[in-house]
Design a protein that fits this description.
Layout lengths: L2 E5 L2 E9 L2 E8 L7 E3 L3 E9 L1 E6 L2 E6 L3 E4 L5 E4 L6 E9 L7 E4 L10
Antiparallel strand pairs: 1-2, 2-3, 3-10, 4-11, 5-8, 5-10, 6-7, 6-9
């Protein structure tokens, strides 16, 4: 593991950071969700490896579970929510310019607005 960080919704762990792509394992606690957000510099691919939840991409909201994959293009509004009783774990692969402050929060359960917060 290269880096990790605890967040109010759970935790992320970074395993690979190369020019043009980055790989993280993201753990979402039961009943929590990430910010409704978008990125200008990167696209993301999420592969759910444990648990289940709801994913928002643009105007579409759908249920996801282990084995499901989601692609989020640059500029697309997105969020993942753990509406279950177990941890929701997914592998996030970022493509493009992969910097932590490339985040625009549109809604946040904890009032965060600063990049990378």
């Amino acid at each position: 593991m290269i880096d990790s960080d605890n967040r109010p919704w759970g935790r992320w762990e970074e395993y690979l950071n190369e020019p043009g792509y980055r790989v993280k394992r993201i753990i979402v606690n039961p009943g929590k969700r990430l910010s409704l957000q978008l990125h200008h510099l990167r696209a993301e691919h999420w592969a759910v490896v444990q648990g289940s939840g709801l994913v928002t991409v643009g105007d579409e909201v759908r249920a996801v579970r282990r084995g499901d994959a989601i692609y989020i293009d640059k500029g697309q509004v997105h969020r993942i929510e753990n509406n279950g009783e177990d941890f929701l774990v997914f592998i996030e692969t970022q493509y493009g310019i992969c910097v932590e402050d490339d985040i625009v929060r549109l809604e946040d359960d904890w009032g965060r607005t600063s990049p990378g917060a």
